[in-house]
Prior knowledge:
Layout: H1 7-11, E1 16-21, E2 27-33, E3 46-52, E4 61-62, E5 79-81, E6 87-91, E7 97-101, E8 106-110, E9 117-122, E10 129-133, E11 137-141, E12 148-150, E13 158-165, E14 168-174, E15 185-188, E16 191-195, E17 201-206, E18 213-217, E19 224-227, E20 251-253, E21 260-266, E22 269-276, E23 281-287, E24 289-296, E25 299-306, E26 309-317, E27 322-328, E28 344-349, E29 355-361, E30 370-374, H2 388-394, E31 399-404, H3 413-417, H4 426-442, E32 449-454, H5 456-467, E33 474-478, H6 484-490, H7 499-502, H8 510-516, E34 529-534, H9 542-551, E35 556-561, H10 571-589
Parallel strand pairs: 30-31, 30-32, 32-33, 33-34, 34-35
Antiparallel strand pairs: 1-2, 2-3, 3-4, 5-6, 6-7, 7-8, 9-10, 10-11, 11-12, 13-14, 14-15, 15-16, 17-18, 18-19, 20-21, 21-22, 22-23, 24-25, 25-26, 26-27, 28-29, 29-31
Helix pairs in contact: 4-5
Amino acid sequence: MADLLTLENCLAGRELVEPRLDPTGRRLAIVTTAPFDLRSDERPLWHIEVIDLDDPAGDWNKMSTTPVRGVRGLGGGTFDWSPDGHSVVAVAAGGDVVEIGIDGSTRMLVPAGDRTLSSPVVDPSSGKVIVVVDQSEIWEIERRSGEIRRVDDGRHDFVIDPIVWNGRVVWHGWNPPNMPWDESELVTEHGVVSAVAGRRVQQPDTTPDGNRIAWLDDASGWLNVTTGDGRRVSEAFEHGGPPWGERMRSWCWSPDGSRLAFVRNEGGFGRLCTVDPSTGRVDERAKAIHGQLSWRGSRLAAIRTGGRTPTQIVVYDTDDWTRRTVAVGPSYDWKDHSALVEPHLLAVDDGAGSLLHARLYRATRPNGALLCWIHGGPTDQWTVSFNVRFAYWIDRGYSILVPDHRGSTGHGRSYTDALRGEWGRLDAHDTAVLVNFVQRSEEFSPERTAVLGSSAGGLTALVVALEHPELLGAVVAAYPVSDIAALDTTTHRFEAHYNRTLVGDPSTTVQKSEERSPVHRVDELSVPVLLLHGDSDPVVSVDQSRRLADIASRHVQYVEYPGEGHGFRSWSTRLDEHRRTEEFLIRHLS
């Protein structure tokens, strides 16, 4: 047997995010890190690099030595090009908004002070800079004088993703108890642009000249592209995901406004498409997940990733849709590696008339064990993207089931809304149904099945262990929610009201929260659990895991990582996490 993948193999490389073409389509800028030094726990700094796409031998060059604030995955909000393409306006690593020239010069525009600035956008007509402040205010900044004007009127507790449409600033806003995917609207200081009661609107953007606007909304029951004049790409597929971060770009206008490009979610797989709004004709252009779409001139740039496609930055020639790969994140040679597999789509009847969705990654050299890996959120979905964590375990013979329990995105509004008031019950029920189906159809035994999850996925994993211990041999839970009620008073601002839709108002749902919280049910726990948590977690307090481990010490192996937050970042922590998980699975699933 060939040597197994190591964690060093899986993590080797650099991160690539937010590709943005300049106004001419000639230069492409990205936000990236240097390759990770796997001997150090220091995270590499983020910088903006630029390449001249007209130069056949063009190399990437740092615009400046000034580090910038990075983002993760398919998110954005670090920078925007100036209208003349001679500079970018960016959020520096320290939080200040700065202007960085192509020549490397850097000047301060707005010091952050004790505020958090994000998502700068440059008005193409006036040159003014619009920024988000603490996700609660919108500021307009005069680049020469530095004069600041607050644009929003405070009608929304949360505001993100400002753009400029016909000289007016437009942004995405919502108020608690809603999350942005529950009910939100697009507004200007002069009034509402788009709002549908009980529905969400997100990702506003305009043609490059700022004259035409479009967005995503789910008024049809599916999150589809909709133009300001009422034309909708109406299809039973979603064109974007939940806005957990700022500046997601799963669609964009063509430079002349005659077409739009968008990414279609097909059961978790991705497909890049274009549409002519005047006729409604949709053309399929490329497979794989695409994000951060940017279309200027005759080029469209994007992040591209898939089950067998290491994360890369690509540029399409929009005349013939040929693709050029200009950067690849991983530095390990993944070409044709047997651990990279495309999953199989599953649709399973739960026995009560509901169709549940999942993806199954079958190991190429199976060891007879099944890992059921539950996404976080819970309003989210793991699409079929490059996942080195999956590759690590598939290489060791584990098949992986990824359930989209009700409440997941990607399957329409009604599927997501089905979890309202039912978190901690319905998600666990659906996961158990899917695990049972795969065990029977693929001949996996319960003794060789483990459920894994982090954050909200950790809650689901623990509840499955409590409700259906006969299906499992082990559970691995990282920074899980184990006390739903306690989450209300300790989590960060963005999610502070999330439980209102997931469970209900805490004043009337105390009993429901306790019945679904593992920390109140530890006497029922009979499945061995590996519990992992960082002591600096701002989302799920480490006290939750400490209490669970203390009460259920007979069944719980607890590991606490100093300095780690919601998601483990340091090399030493991730190495230890994988080592302990592997030892735990071998001990309990063999």
